[in-house]
Amino acid sequence: MTSSGRTVVACLLGLGSAAAAAYASHRGTAARQAVTPPIQQATFNRDIAPIVFRYCAPCHRPGEAGPFPLLTYTDVKARARQIVTVTSKRFMPPWLPEPQELRFADELRLSEEQIALIQKWVEEGAVEGDSANLPAAPQFVAGWQLGRPDEIVEAERPYTLPASGSDMYWNFIFRTPVDRTRWLKAIEIRPGDKRVVHHANVLVDRNQAARRMEAEPRAGFPGMELKIESETFDPDSHFLFWKPGTVPRPAPEGMSLRLDKDTDLVLNIHLQPSGKLEQIRPSLGLYFTEKPATQFPLLLQLENDKQLNIPPGDKRFLVTDEFTLPVDVDLLAIYPHAHYLGKDLQALAILPDGSSKTLIHIPEWNLNWQAIYYYADRVTLPRGTAISMRYIYDNSSGNPANPNDPPRQVVGGNRSRDEMAHLWLQVLPHAPPGSTLDPRMVLQEAMARHNIEKNPADFEARYNLAAMLQGRGAQDEAILNFEFAVRLRPQNGTANNALGASLLAAGRIDEALPYLYAALRAEPDNFDAHYNLANALVSQDKFLEAIEHYRAAIRLHPDDANAEANLGGALAETGSLSEAKMHFQRALQIDPNHKLARENLEQISSNPKNVQH
Amino acid sequence: MRRRRLILEQVSSIFIFLSAAAVLVLAMPSLLAAQKTALRLDGTPVDPFLEAAGKPVVLIFVRTDCPISNRYAPMIQRIGSEYSAKVNLWLVYPSRKTTAEQIRQHEREYSYKLPALRDPQHALVTLAQVQVTPEAAVFDGKHRLLYHGRIDDLYRDFGRARPTATTHELEDAVQAALSGKTPPPNTTGVGCFITDDE
Are B105 and B27 within one domain? Predict the structure, then answer.
């Protein structure tokens, strides 16, 4: 066995430093024990099990995200050195925020004493101790965490994650199974294989807008950050988020989530290759309630992606934003978000009395462990409170998460190689006494004005501000802002249609027409533009052309009672009474309470000469 | 291994340390080999260095339940296939508790087509001076340890993976073993501590 002999020599030559270090540490322990009065030996059953059961076991058990179980003395002893290392680096349990005055619910942060205790236990030989001291094993709910869901929707097709490569972001579109408006108290996300899914979140897509991103229907699509368009002011006000160890939080009483027929739920998941091909097939559990929402929270967004233009090598690139609350709010939860270059993320509230509160401070950001943080108690922030975010980015090669080697200029954007500077706050706004305005609208309008201040060419902010002004009847200012939006994006169908519609509402028909035609040139299948244009044409007595556009609108939305009723009206004007009657009846079929259709139908039956629009 | 550590601790100069080691080796090489040995999956003892017949030997230490070593599976397999004609490369499972059947299943799951060994007594762990999975050890044709440590720098720390590795120590070390060039410096890997399994 000469070869073995030779390799043993190699072993001994190299062993020096490791062995010496091991002995030094053993001697050190012995010396401490000799000079200090003997302190109680740490045991698993008394000292370590309570920590492990609470902080580790929720994920480190079969079927969960942890790669190995930590449920028994044997489990824990077999990972003792690993546990000492990852807890002392605060890699585990994953909890990014620093301790602060405003406490979070379900904090998963070990104290310095707990970390030291684990270390002491391992140094002393990882003793099991007296079984009488062992606390009861933690009880976990198997399967769906909130019990059997009322409906379960499963992804139609699995996604196959490659065995190797960098992180992947994939989106599944779930068609909702409801045939009428329902209220949800919770959505439980089952992300598929929990060991490869880092996090997942659900976006409510009320207009099936995400389907346009699929290369073929029902295929799903890649992408990290989604922007879902919405036609009405109907903000998504719930965080629907999954990360390892999460038990879904049912919405508080009165804050249920509306789910309409034809609404899509888009699940965005962050995956990390595991070394083998993985089939990912997530499902969603829907839990209904009979109680419609009576309280309406809002997700407020501070951001400053425009400031993101980070030179390569810059270790401390600062991005800030500050927003002053126009109404009183209760802050419920907070979600800071940056990509791979984010380093130190902080949010502060400066109250009108000058006092300040740290809302969150994450000194070592790690995208892999991003989370929604719920406050243990609602945080009352009065009107006039300034909320500020202060994010520092590290674009040096010293940042191990830096996607670029060597570092390169990084700007704001949706792709994972771009950066983001977002801070989301879930707030419950309160209307000032005596006000009839929806406080969410007040907040959203202030937010849009704030965004325009930051960036006058922000198309979305202009558009949203105009839409809210229109909604509360501030027509002239709405038209000005829609005009601005159209100047920013002259080819945008939605903006042209909105400007046309608001001019139409103001009685400025001649001015409205060119924008409505422009909207249709940009989007020939824009229902609203066809409908609005038809209405404008009717008020100019151009019935034949109007009829064409009503028909086009109905082809796009066959279930729209207004389009049917107005088509009936236009047809009646041209003398096609029997056809008109048919469309009034169709409108009433869709909506038996359609007043105009009913009156016109009665009119046409009694006195065919006098039909109103 | 306890006896040898005792000698190391007592020596006060490098020279004495070296001669003490040499004496010990001369005294008991066959005994060591008899006591501690790696095993094939069929349970028979194996000495990878005897099998190598003068080729460089590459040992890659993995575990079935270590997520970081699993993430390296495609890369390890690629390196294994690429150099299979020129070096003797083995996957080594150092866990005392992992059975041969679990290893076979793990190889199937992760598409490994490399010969695997169990090293429950840590005979190879000690020779290779590895500390975590995944780490590799590269021995030259004369079976001198040229390199031991991480495969590459994909992980800087726990939970801190780069999008792609920027250094490639294992491949550099294999090249060094084949060409006689200087191997890369030994660098400890990030992963699961092998000694935890004791």
Answer: no
Are B167 and B191 in the same domain? yes
Verify whether the Cβ–Cβ distance B49 to A401 is below 8 Å. no
Torsion over CA: B20, B23, B29, B30 (sign): negative
> Which candidate in B71, B108, B153 is best for mutational testing of the A interface (most A CBs within 10 A)?
B71
Instruction: Give the minimum alpha-carbon distance from B72 to chain A in angstroms, rounded to a whole number.
Output: 6
Tell me the CA distances in angstroms from B34 to A4, A128, B38, B45, one per residue in order: 11, 33, 10, 9
Domain count, chain A: 4
The residues, ordered by sequence, that sit 6+ positions from B88 with a Cβ below 8 Å of its Cβ are: B48, B51, B52, B55, B56, B57, B58
pLDDT cut 70: percent of chain B above it: 81
b vs e for A461-480, b when ≥16 Cβ sit within 10 Å of the residue's Cβ? bbbbbbbbbbeeebeeebbb
Beta-ladder partners of A4: none
Q: At what angle do helices A561-573 and A527-539 cross, to 10 degrees?
A: 30
Helix (H) or strand (E) holding A362: strand A356-362
**Contact at CB, B158 and A89, closer than 8 angstroms:** yes
Spatial CA neighbour of A118 closest among A148, A73, A80, A144? A80
A425-466 residue pLDDT tens:
999 999 888 888 889 889 989 999 999 999 999 898 899 899
Q: Compute the average pLDDT of residues A112-140.
A: 95
Backbone torsion region of residue A541, taken as left when φ is above 0, otherwise alpha when ψ lies between -120 and 50, otherwise beta = left
Q: Is residue A14 situated within a structural domain?
A: no
Nearest-by-Cβ selection for B145 from A5, A14, A400: A14
A115 and A182 within one domain: no
CA distances from A126 to A21, A78, A119, A134 (A): 20, 10, 9, 15
| Structure tokens belonging to residue A507 | 């009685």
Same domain, B120 and B170: yes
Task: Report whether A495 contacts A460 (CB < 8 A).
Answer: no
Closest CB to B160: pick one of A4, A5, A401. Answer: A401
Q: Is residue A238 part of a domain?
A: yes
Task: Give backbone dihedrals phi and psi of A529, rounded to 5 degrees, phi first.
Answer: -65, -40
| Residue in the structure block whose two tokens are 């198309």 | A459
Residue A490's SS3 state is coil
Q: Name the E strands within A257-316.
A: 257-259, 264-271, 278-280, 283-289, 298-303, 309-310
Q: Do both A116 and A218 map to the same domain? A: no
Q: Is the dihedral of CA A13, A17, A21, A23 positive or negative?
A: positive
CB contact under 8 A, A94 and B159: yes
CB within 8 Å: A195 and B67:
yes
Residue span of the structural domain in which B83 resides: 37-197
Which residues make Cβ contacts (< 8 Å) with residue A502, sequence separation at least 6? Answer: A466, A470, A475, A478, A479, A482
Cα(A445)–Cα(A438) distance, integer angstroms: 11
- Would you tell me the crossing angle of helices A527-539 and A493-505 to the nearest 10 degrees? 30
Range with lowest mean pLDDT among A34-38, B82-86, B105-109: A34-38
In the numeric block, which tokens belong to residue B26? 């001369």
> Both A275 and A341 in a single domain?
no
Which residue from A185, A154, A197, A206 is spatially nearest to A248, judged by alpha carbons?
A: A185
* pLDDT tens-place string over residues A188-227: 999 888 888 888 889 888 888 888 888 888 889 988 777 7
Residue A43's identity, in one-letter code, is: T
pTM equals 0.79
CB A450 within 8 A of CB A462: no
B8 has pLDDT over 60: no
Would you call A9 and B67 a contact, using CB atoms and an 8 Å cutoff?
no
pLDDT reading at A469 higher than 70: yes
